[in-house]
Design goal:
alpha/beta; two-stranded antiparallel ribbon; 11 strands; globular; binds iron/sulfur cluster; Radical_SAM_PqqE_MftC-like; S-adenosyl-L-methionine; iron
Length: 459
C-alpha cells in the first residue's frame, strides 16, 4: 500500500508539469463510433472527429486537432474549460482530490508521465485506456441519459417530442453516421487502428448503448480468442438488464478467452445509482434485483472483478444507505466488488446539491454507515478509496451554490419529473415519498422562476 508521503510526491510531480496537467487528456479516450465523436474522459463534452482527419490518420479517433489544442493549454498551465468537472472539485472546500489527479495517478497513466510531459502537444499518442461505443442500441431510458447513447430515448423523443421548457433535454446532440455497425466508417477505422495500439493497451472497455446488444462486442471476444494480448484488461459497461440468453452467451464466449490466458483479466462495470424503486425510477427499464443477481452470476461463473459505477444525483439520496447495504452483501459474499461514486453534473436539474438542507441528513447517515465499515481495498467491506470518493461528493453537495442556480435547477426538476412521469407512466412521489416537501419547494421555484403563480399539481 502506498504511503501518504509517496502519494503526495507523485501528486506534486504531476502538478510540477502544470497545475492543470492531466494524463487522461493523452492516454484515455472514450470513442463514440456511432456519431464519430470522442472525449478524453466522461466529463468533457464529446467533440467531433472530422472524417477528413481520420482518412489521413486512423489515430485521429483519439488524437484530434481539437484535443491537441486542449493538451497545449494543459502543458501551458491553463485550464481547458471542457474540464469544468475537475475545476469545480479543485475549487471546492473538501480536501479530496479531483479526477485529474486520481486518473493521472492510475496504473495506466502515471508510468507514462515523463514521456507525455516531454512530448510536443501536436504528437500523436497511443492511448493506454480506450473506451469504445460501437452501437447505441439500449434497452434502458435513464432519466439523465441522452438520445445519442440510447435507442430507447431516441424512440421516446420520436414519440413524444422534446421536453417542454427544458432546452435540449435528452435530444440528440450529434448526427448519427450510420445505423449499420458493419458499414460505419468510424467502426471500420477502429478495427484498422486496434491492432496498432493493442500491444500497449492497458484497458479496452466496451460501452454503449448496451454493449451486450452489439455484434461488435462479440467480435472483440472472437478477436481476443485468436489474438493474445497478455497485458490487456478487457472491460464492459453493461446494465445487466438484458435477457438471460444474452448474458449466458457472453459468459460462454468470454470463458475460453480467460481460460487460454489470452488477456490479463476481465472487469465487469455496471451502473446503479440508488436503491431499488428509486433506482428503477431514474433508470427506466432497470430491474434492480435482476441486476444484482446477474452480478452474482458473473462472480460465480467467472470470478471476475465487478465495478459498480454510481452517479450520485438527487435520486440517490433518500435510500442510499439501503443501497450500500446491498453492495456490502455482495462484498461479503465475493470480495472485489468496487463501488465507484461520482457526482452527477449534467443535467443540472438532477444534481444532488439542489436539495434542501434538511435532506443532507440522509447523506450523512449513509456516509457514517460506509465509514463504519472500512477495510482493505477489494475486501469484504468498503475501502478508503470508496469512502474518499463518497466524501468528495458529500463536500461538493454541501458547498455553496448560487441561490438563483439552485432555484432554476429545482424548477427544472419539477418540469422534468412532471413530463417523465407522463411519458413512462410513473409517479415521482410514489417512488420518492421522502421528497414530498422538497417537491413542493421545487414547484414553488418553478412558478417563481417561470410563471410567478401556484398551480394544482403536487399541492
Ligand atoms: S482534467 Fe478532469 S475532466 Fe479533464 S480530462 Fe482530466 S479527468 Fe477528465
Amino acid at each position: 500500500m502506498e504511503s501518504l508521503k509517496d502519494r503526495k510526491k507523485r501528486i506534486d510531480s504531476i502538478n510540477e508539469v502544470s497545475e492543470s496537467f492531466c494524463l487522461a487528456k493523452w492516454l484515455q479516450v472514450t470513442i463514440d463510433l456511432v456519431h464519430g465523436t470522442n472525449h478524453s474522459c466522461h466529463h468533457p463534452r464529446r467533440h467531433l472527429i472530422p472524417l477528413e482527419e481520420l482518412e489521413q490518420n486512423p489515430s485521429a479517433l483519439h488524437n484530434t486537432k481539437f484535443k491537441k489544442e486542449k493538451r497545449k493549454e494543459m502543458l501551458e498551465g491553463r485550464r481547458p474549460s471542457e474540464c469544468e468537472y475537475c475545476w469545480q472539485i479543485e475549487d471546492s472546500s473538501g480536501p479530496e482530490k479531483s479526477d485529474r489527479l486520481i486518473k493521472s495517478l492510475d496504473h495506466w497513466a502515471y508510468p507514462h508521465k515523463d514521456r507525455i510531459a516531454n512530448s510536443h502537444y501536436e504528437d500523436d499518442v497511443a492511448p493506454t485506456y480506450v473506451e469504445v461505443m460501437f452501437d447505441k442500441g439500449c434497452n434502458l431510458a435513464c432519466g439523465y441519459c441522452i438520445a445519442d447513447v440510447s435507442s430507447r430515448i431516441e424512440q421516446e423523443i420520436k414519440k413524444f417530442g422534446p421536453y417542454e421548457e427544458l432546452i435540449d433535454h435528452r435530444l440528440p446532440r450529434n448526427e448519427k453516421i450510420s445505423d449499420d455497425e458493419t458499414t460505419n466508417p468510424y467502426v471500420i477505422a477502429f478495427w484498422k487502428w486496434l491492432p496498432t495500439i493493442i500491444e500497449g493497451l492497458h484497458t479496452l472497455r466496451i460501452t454503449g448503448g448496451e454493449p451486450l446488444l452489439s455484434v461488435n462486442t462479440f467480435k472483440v471476444l472472437d478477436y481476443l480468442l485468436e489474438n493474445e494480448s497478455k497485458d490487456l484488461t478487457l472491460a464492459i459497461n453493461t446494465n445487466l438488464s438484458v435477457k438471460d440468453v444474452v448474458i449466458d452467451r457472453f459468459i460462454k464466449k468470454l470463458k475460453p478467452v480467460l481460460q487460454k490466458g489470452n488477456i490479463k483479466k476481465f472487469e465487469l462495470f455496471t451502473s446503479v445509482d440508488a436503491y431499488k424503486e428509486q433506482a428503477e425510477y431514474i433508470r427506466e427499464g432497470l430491474d434492480y434485483d435482476k441486476m444484482l443477481s446477474n452480478i452474482r452470476k458473473f462472480k460465480e461463473e467467472l470470478g471476475v472483478d465487478v465495478i459498480i459505477n454510481c452517479t450520485f444525483g438527487v435520486y440517490s439520496i433518500p435510500k442510499f444507505k439501503l443501497f450500500l447495504q446491498d453492495i456490502l452483501e455482495l462484498k461479503k459474499d465475493y470480495g472485489r466488488v468496487i463501488l465507484d461514486i461520482s457526482y452527477l453534473n449534467h443535467p443540472r436539474y438532477l444534481r444532488a446539491n439542489m436539495v434542501t438542507e434538511d435532506l443532507h441528513s440522509y447523506i450523512k447517515e449513509s456516509l457514517e454507515f460506509m465509514g463504519g465499515r472500512v477495510s482493505e481495498f477489494g475486501g469484504n467491506e468498503f475501502s478508503e478509496y470508496e469512502l474518499e470518493k463518497f466524501k468528495r461528493v458529500y463536500h461538493w453537495i454541501v458547498s455553496k451554490e448560487r441561490m438563483d442556480q439552485k432555484n432554476q435547477n429545482r424548477a427544472d426538476l419539477y418540469t422534468f419529473v412532471t413530463q417523465f412521469d407522463k411519458r413512462y407512466n410513473k409517479d415521482f412521489l410514489t417512488a420518492f415519498p421522502e421528497y414530498k416537501d422538497f417537491m413542493l419547494n421545487c414547484k414553488k421555484s418553478y412558478y417563481f422562476v417561470k410563471k410567478l403563480t401556484i398551480g394544482e399539481d403536487y399541492v
